[in-house]
Amino acid sequence: MVVSGLPERNGDRHADEIAKMALDLLAAVKQVVIPHMPKERLQLRAGIHTGPCVAGIVGHKMPRYCLFGDTAN
């Protein structure tokens, strides 16, 4: 899962940045060769959801950066 505009706001560029990233990932996946299955290709699908979310670090022993809110669920 990825998010745009955190921790620093990026104005109204959220959808543009996420869409470009998704297209870059799709292009990168086409270049992957699986050594033990060279005729097979990785497959990737991307979905984009928009809306507010809250981010924070959760945990003491194993801190993780987490996203919360209806958009992230």
TrEMBL record:
Top-level taxon in the UniProt lineage: Eukaryota
Any GO BP: receptor guanylyl cyclase signaling pathway
Compartments, record wording: Membrane
Cited InterPro entries: A/G_cyclase, Cyclic_nucleotide_synthase, Nucleotide_cyclase
Location of the Guanylate cyclase domain: 1-73
First-listed, main subcellular location of the protein, grouped into a coarse class: membrane
GO molecular function: adenylate cyclase activity; guanylate cyclase activity; nucleotide binding; peptide receptor activity
A GO CC term assigned to this protein in UniProt: plasma membrane
Pfam families: Guanylate_cyc (PF00211)
This protein's UniProt keywords: Lyase, Membrane, Nucleotide-binding, Transmembrane, Transmembrane helix
This protein's name: Guanylate cyclase domain-containing protein
Encoding gene per record: Nfu_g_1_015613
